[in-house]
Records
---
Amino acid sequence: MPRLFIATLVTAALTLVAAARADTRIRVGQTPAASLVASYIAQEKGFFTRRGLEVELQPIVLNSNIPAGIVAGSTDIGGTTTTVLLQAVDSGIDLVTVSGTNVTFKESKNSAIIARNESGISAPADFVGKKIGVPGLGALAHVSLRNWLTQHGVDYTRVNYVELSFPQQRDALQSGLVDAVVTVEPTYSRILAAGLGKDVGHAFDSLPPGTQTILYSTTREWATAHRDAVRAFHEANEEGTRYALAHLDEARAAIAKYMKLPPDAANDVEMPRLSATVTVADLAVIADIMKQQGMLHAPIDPAKLLFP
């Protein structure tokens, strides 16, 4: 009887713990992109639920809107580009990063600056006076483009920038609303396949190879109050990263599903260089570029943005 009683208590306790863990619901806001395939895999393969997390992946059109959603409480964790994270911190929002997604690499063809055929743009100097579509003012693509222009001796302040989400870019080029766009897959391939423009450069090449581009972030207060959930989220994202790299067919299928792409289109998408690890250097290099562009008003200590 004592053994049976103890066994019953243990079973009941384990059931309560499992139920408590299962109640950990996390809303993750992110702009659909192949770079986030680890989260798609983690959702599909049950890596989140295995760790007691109920994760809702929330599509958000403009990356720059994510910090506001986190502060408003409509999303818990956001997949923000590094520049959006740093701008939010600079404005007084106490955000921290809890996991990474992918890093830059020189041979990447996943993104490009595509100029409209009639734009007259064929070299960096031709951008002066032109109207360029970027997926968010202050977004990483915007900052990288200005850094790319600077590296090629062009005054980026003499270029006009228009905020265009990726789904809007093809129509904007076709109608002549903009002269060029900074875009990524699958928009990149679709624009080229339609004959609407030409590849004239790669803005992300202005960043050091191995730099994180999209970081999962949340408020320090939320991360502190949900420390176990944050750790579990990062571990699931890491497992999703490893699985995606080892099972490319499943990774592409997940990209097709979550980005609502035909399978053939997903097959043409370049696989990102996945990494869930975020370092101080990832934040520091972008912060330095943003300082050069006058985007930050006070010093930021990158080490304080990494949640333990």
---
Amino acid sequence: MQDFTGSAIQDQPIRRTPHIPPGFDARIRQLVADWGIQKSPELIEELIITVLKMGSDRMGTGDLKLVNRSLKELRYAAKIFAPYRDVRKVVIFGSARTAPDEPVARLAEEFGRQMVAHQFMVITGGGDGIMGAAQRGAGRENSFGLNIRLPFEQRANEIIHGDPKLINFNYFFARKLNFVKETHAFALFPGGFGTMDECFEALTLMQTGKALIIPIVLIDSPNGRYWETWMRFLTDHLLKQGLISEEDFNFIKIAHNVDEAVSEILLFYKNFDSSRWVGSQLVYRIHRPLTSAALANLNERFAGVLREGEIVQSGPLPQERNQPELAHLPRIIFTPHRHEFGRFRQLIDAINLAETT
């Protein structure tokens, strides 16, 4: 899982509530210790306190059921993904109504196959059409399915049906959260309301800084115009009316063949590895350090992104000690303005193309 958001997951001290009755704090701490919790016990204690407070908040039974079921879904999904934390993944969206012999379905199948060849796993909604095609290409062992329970039958495709990596959700928001927090790239094929919903969700989260920047590739068959038509709507109506900014288009790339789509995702991770907020600083982990000239060039090109200071290169910050597996990676660190996040994507592209030592 990535450090999902640019605001919620940060290095902040755990805030202990002053409203716990005397003695309860120690009892909760002992309960957590008795269960043998070793990883982040203070967070488990805070979760227990939150649940207990819900019991005294006069919440309705319906609300309690919603929170309970949501937490169970999130916990189970995290458990399924946990063994695959170190494997990059790509989420693939597209219509469940696309026939297997349509050109765009064959494209999705080949895309899934090639992403697996580049050591990615594939995540889909678990349905048929584009999703089933992508998972045929990826294979069962390299696939996750995040299925949604609907009033009408929503059976998973034959590739992922019955696999332990098929997760069934009752709530769309829990399913969406897992799509975003577990992936390293989005690939969207032509689809209906669901595809548009997921596309705009990803764009909104990145545009507002609520999700860290990852590639979004819009894929269609060589002669298809689905995404160009969609892009014309964005340009002619949203951009011209000032409802979005020119920088927002940096998040997306249209591709009309598999090689182009795969290359876009691989280029994003050519040198860039991952990112994390540490207070007001944004940390980019990279595989190879940049030359002094390349770093100076970044400071010149992206001065407008900086709220203060310069773009610097260093080792890990002390606050990153809870991720020792990444300690060996060089860092690009800067303090940016928290707007025009499309420029952050341009900066990552520049880092990937910059000269390294």
---
Amino acid sequence: MAKTAVVILNWNGLGFLKMFLGVVINYSIDDDTIVCVADNGSTDGSVDWIAENFSDVKLIKLDKNHGFAGGYNEALNKVDAKYFVLLNSDIEVTENWLRPLVSFMDNNPDVASCQPKILSYYNKDHFEHAGAAGCFIDKYGYPFCRGRVINKTEKDTGQYDSQVNVFWTSGACMIVKSEAWTKCGGFDTDFFAHMEEIDLCWRFQKAGYRVCFIPESIIYHVGGGTLPYSSPLKTYLNFRNSLFLLYKNLPDNKLHSIMFIRRLLDGLAAMYFLVKGSFRSVRAVWKAHMDFYRVINGLREKREVIKKIEINHNQEYVLNKSIVFEFYIKGNKTYNSLTS
């Protein structure tokens, strides 16, 4: 049994593997750490290339594309380690990236997950969209980060170089205690991709764990490697999965009021897409809501399952504001201005 397993989920990402896998191996593998690549049914020669070039990588071959959530659930069932590090294939790690994360987990047994500082691969003095310096949600389920609000990323000037508790850690790179992963059920495979890590971290906190950001670890993320940010499928998944997230996890006394307002906000977003002429995005929002209603009975059952592990009812790390209102109406476009 390895202490730490760095697990990269790959789906037709041969180009990124050629760019970054060697660096991950050089800066990660030691007596306590293994590197695994879980292949999600790729058809681009990824599996053969890994087998030919990196015999020290544990290769996990999955039968089809299970998505991000299902792929990791399948892969981690085949990995025996105290800590899992979920790492995107489009990430350049740095020499000392892993040690601060593992050390922090060792010294804080009440922590289920933590993440490094995530900077942009193409603009290395700026935060990257997916994770930045630790992540939160607002009262209506919109995610944001220290260093990224809506679509605006900040320059990294050290303004967020502090270890803090956060609401969620980024699926681009997160280290997870395997015991907590198992106790809280791993990812919800119905999410397929996007926001499944927020859902999991919400469950971590309900079960009494903390989730943290560790600035001493730094990585660089390309971003949008599997789905471009402008993809209608990404729009669909984000809107649908936001509804899944809220319905599963909101406390009973806030469920109906928050869901009502979120529906209105999604309607405004659809109107915005319509005015812009982005008809595929309008359809994506519509389909997201239809599919939410289609599975709502299953979501009710999941709410009941979550209540069985829930010992912490506070909402301390949920921002009691609307970042849409703050960003577009009040002009608060940084984390510090949102929370001041």
